[in-house]
Amino acid sequence: MAVPMTMTIAMAIAMAKANPFELRTVLFAKHAQHVVLIHFPIALFISAVVFDFLSHWTKRLGLADAAYYNLLVAAASTLPVLATGLLAWQFQLEGQKLKGILLLHLLLACLSSALICLVWFVHFRARRRTEGLPGYRLTLEILAVGIVALTGHLGSFLSGVNGQG
After folding, report:
1. Which of 9, 52, 108, 112 gets the highest tally of CB atoms within 10 A of its CB?
2. Tell me, what's the pLDDT at 60?
3. Distance set, CA 29 to CA 94, 108, 137 (Å)
4. What is the pTM of this model?
């Protein structure tokens, strides 16, 4: 679909007025923080699950340590991601009632965050008690990766990556 020339000029003028190096522009962009921050817990969590599976398979403690610290940072980074997601909803939609993909994305985001924190807690408790990790954690981790992937997939539709945003 062709974009009208007047729309392109208006967009260029609006972009020229916004200074990308001004702190206010960076902090108060409509939803930019959420879109940038979301990659951290997703990547850290998936990496942690891969490290955990490899450590389970190879019995290498270094991989288990890598899994634990990736889980720790992933769990901690879910807090600012949830906060910026809620702020994006407030700024972009002015707090409108949630429905459809956005509502499902929010519910799955909360579930994803809870699962990431739960997986970290399972690892934390096992380390604190100096006992082996429970076998059910691998099933929990696979389930959590699936929920995280679905949440990210829906988020990509909302941001316009996989269709209209």
Report:
1. 112
2. 95
3. 14, 24, 39
4. 0.79
